[in-house]
Amino acid sequence: MNFEEQIKKDLHQYLMSEKRVDEKLPECPDVEALWPSVEKAYLPDAVREFPEYPVVSLGWIMFVGMAFAKYWDVDWEKYANVSGEQLYIDLRDVKGYDNLDDVVLYEVLGLDKEEGEKVSEIVGECAARTLSAIQHSGIEPGTEKAVEAYRGALHALYIMGMAMELNALGYHMQLLG
To answer: CA of 141: how far to CAs of 23, 51, 52, 92, 157, in Å?
Structure first.
């Protein structure tokens, strides 16, 4: 199992324990397909923030996944022809990178303060777990392998953010058998 898959597995188990996803994760190929262009736009922001705010650097991408899942559910025709890069930039630029969490929680998802705080807490835990996995991976910082692990971690967090929001929107997948 590669590093990204290890992160996904750990986050999946944690999010199931919080009743934020089901055993079978929802799939959304439209949102998943945006990843390469989202990564291109997000990575410079994330790398810049990582030395001082590693949990933010990791966690904010979950909010992006949540926002894009919401966009998909509400009016995908409106968003389908916009690149993931542009969707991220537009989202980030509402109030800047530092406030991306609040923009997603309260303006995009429309959560009340109590639920917004709970979701923020869960995202923080996911990011902290991921940071711990990176720190304990034995991968030498600054190497190509470290960059690959970081990118894989961001992708796993994006997918889990998407899955959390799809679950919150009522998309539930059942295991057959």
So the answer is: 33, 12, 15, 28, 20
pTM over 0.85: yes
Q: Is 77 part of any domain?
A: yes
4/114 Cα distance (integer angstroms): 31
* pLDDT 10s digits, 107-159: 999 999 999 999 999 999 999 999 999 999 999 988 999 999 999 999 999 99
Domain membership of residue 30 (yes or no) is: no
Judge whether 132 lies within some domain.
yes
Beta bridge partners, 24, equal: 173
Question: Is residue 104 domain-resident?
Answer: yes
Q: What span, in angstroms and rounded, lies between the C-alpha atoms of 177 and 168?
A: 25
Domain range enclosing 142: 3-18+36-168
Q: b or e along 37-64 (b: 16 or more beta carbons within 10 Å of the residue's beta carbon)?
A: bbbebbbebbeebbeebbbbbbbbbbbb
Residue 175, Ramachandran bin (φ over 0: left; ψ between -120 and 50: alpha; else beta): beta
